[in-house]
Design a protein that fits this description.
The protein is 61% helix and 3% strand. By secondary structure, it is mainly alpha-helical. The structure holds iron/sulfur cluster.
């Protein structure tokens, strides 16, 4: 009781300070950064929620026609779930608008750090704005346009009647009746350049005559220009942010972030036998891990980046420490490494990954974002994400070799071209599992594996196949994992930071 009345008072106090006026619209161009103090906890939770939202925007944009009923319903449901503004100018959604404002600026900081990140962030923010703008009623659109200084002059009824033939022929899909119904605006050519290029607008005396339904293209163009500039400016201020030791790890984590379980709880520990791995690599491994497994079998060796990425993945799918040691050793001694060298040089890092050496951190498997964004492979490496790091021709060959149908390969390559690497991987999942809709948003190689196993076993968990070596480890590992999972985001962060240390330390190829 006391708690809720305290929160109510706090909210009231904020409102009394006229903070509500900060957000007169449910929609904004995010021109001014937030000026209030917020806790690190709020900073992190707002940012993670926006990241979840933008990932849904990306996923929906590829899976459905933007603006279709399903697209809109799904996006609205996500906005509601994450408590962002979802209904145009709904009353009393100050908290949602505040969260929208602050979270945008936090992700702007995290996603200004490289060209790839900036492009991804810009695309998703544009799609989000497009959806929200199109949800506004006509009068609210007008208000919003005035608010962002895009108040275009409305074409008078008399002038519209005079020009109705020209307007009808220059506006694709418009009948004469439609021209009569719609408001038209006089827009400067610089603002209507996309419509002008696509020959979809009537031009007279240096003005484009744009129907209300096409105003969104202009608004988006304007927003894109502003946000691109803002991202470039923010990137320039990075050095000062990078010196802030509270913010930098958080921002780095966000731009490599995976929002979901970290697969540190190894529910399946000991349930997989070493003999199953070859078959599993074909049926249930994502392409990155299938590639690493094949390279290991072919060359009896993997370089450091590959061992880290694949070793932690295998740990995540349930290999015990004893199994991992046996697995790597058996393979390495078939190549140029003898048993003694393996024990001295390589076994340490495997035990380290399982939290048995060094700082005894129970390391978590890499997420897709981490694999895609950091440590790109060089010559002789097999780690990384094939959708991100492989040459398109090589990727095509690989997919052909894995019997992906030609039409599917074309779809995958299109997604790769648009830099939707995880969606390309989802498409690969659909094609190799013969399903129409993957039904989940892919963010983690271990998630791919779990979903594949769930599907192949008809919704059941992995069949338990205990191996002797695995059994004794299971209990202690689960216990460690439970501990490390109690604060997932911070533990991820710590693990990430410590892993960097380990990577630097263990550089032997
Ligand atoms: Fe692996 Fe993720 Fe790339 Fe798929 S998208 S290949 S799971 S890194």
């Amino acid at each position: 009781m006391e708690f809720s009345s305290g929160r109510a008072k706090l909210k009231q106090a904020r409102l009394l300070g006229d903070r509500r006026e900060l957000y007169p619209h449910s929609l904004q161009f995010y021109l001014d950064p937030p000026m209030e103090n917020i806790s690190l906890g709020e900073f992190e939770s707002f940012a993670i929620d926006r990241l979840k939202l933008l990932k849904v925007v990306e996923n929906l944009g590829v899976s459905y026609v933007r603006g279709s009923d399903t697209y809109k319903t799904k996006l609205e449901s996500e906005l509601r779930k994450l408590k962002f503004p979802y209904r145009a100018l709904a009353e009393d959604d100050y908290e949602a608008r505040r969260k929208d404002h602050i979270s945008h600026f936090i992700l702007r900081l995290a996603y200004c750090q490289s060209e790839d990140l900036r492009r991804w962030f810009l695309q998703q923010e544009m799609d989000l704005l497009r959806y929200r703008f199109n949800e506004l009623t006509e009068s609210l659109r007008q208000k919003f346009l005035q608010h962002v200084n895009l108040s275009f002059e409305a074409v008078s009824e008399d002038l519209k009647n005079e020009l109705e033939n020209e307007l009808c022929t220059s506006t694709p899909g418009f009948s004469m009746n439609k021209v009569k119904e719609q408001m038209y605006y006089k827009v400067g050519l610089a603002d209507a350049v996309d419509l002008f290029r696509a020959r979809r607008v009537f031009i007279k005396d240096g003005f484009a005559y744009v129907p209300l339904k096409d105003i969104d293209a202009i608004v988006l163009n304007n927003y894109r220009t502003k946000l691109s500039k803002a991202l470039a400016l923010t990137a320039r201020s990075l050095p000062s942010i990078q010196s802030d030791e509270r913010l930098q790890p958080l921002l780095n984590h966000l731009s490599h972030s995976y929002v979901g379980p970290d697969y540190s709880v190894q529910k399946n520990t000991g349930k997989i036998s070493l003999e199953q791995i070859d078959a599993l690599s074909v049926k249930s491994f994502p392409l990155c891990m299938r590639q690493l497994h094949k390279a290991l079998r072919d060359n009896h060796h993997l370089r450091h980046g590959g061992r880290m990425q694949y070793g932690l993945f295998l740990k995540g799918i349930g290999l015990t420490l004893e199994q991992a040691l046996e697995f790597w050793k058996k393979e390495f001694i078939r190549g140029k490494v003898d048993a003694d060298k393996f024990d001295k040089g390589y076994a340490y890092s495997i035990r380290h990954n399982y939290g048995k050496e060094g700082k005894r951190t129970d390391y978590t498997p890499y997420s897709c974002m981490k694999i895609i964004m950091s440590n790109p492979p060089s010559q002789g490496d097999y780690h990384g994400c094939p959708f991100r790091h492989s040459d398109p021709d090589l990727l095509k060959q690989k997919l052909q070799a894995y019997k992906v149908p030609p039409s599917g390969i074309t779809q995958i390559l299109e997604l790769v071209k648009g830099m939707h690497y995880q969606l390309a991987c989802q498409k690969y999942f659909e094609l190799t599992h013969d399903v129409d809709d993957v039904g989940f948003s892919l963010n983690h190689p271990n998630q791919y594996f779990t979903e594949s196993q769930r599907l192949l076993s008809g919704g059941r968990e992995l069949k338990k196949e205990l191996s002797n070596s695995g059994n004794s480890q299971q209990k202690s590992n689960s216990q460690e994992s439970m501990n490390s999972n109690s604060t997932p985001t911070s533990s991820n962060r710590t693990a990430d930071a410590e892993l960097e240390g380990l990577e630097a330390y263990f550089t032997e190829d």
